[in-house]
Amino acid sequence: LTELGELMFASHQSCAGMYQCSSSGLDCLVELSKKFGALGARLTGAGWGGCIVALVEEKSAAKFIENLKTAYYEPMQLGTEELNSAIFVTRPGQGASLWSVR
Fold this sequence. Notes:
4 helices; globular; 2 strands; two-stranded antiparallel sheet; 47% helix
């Protein structure tokens, strides 16, 4: 997981520097993720705004989220519902599949 995390950070730097498809908000979230113990983080989606995905150990997830809420989101004065939809835990899924329908 450590190597995957390093690749995620490097990928974000590439997106931000070489392709200029990041934003100051996403760059800040990735840097805060690193500061708060994420193994890796990068922008996700098409870039130019949007969101990040951070690789965090399950045992550290609650504290990681609390730290991001305080450092990044608290100054925005979001409501509870809005805040909870902005940052949440998810787990990897199966991914794409091929289905044969007859």
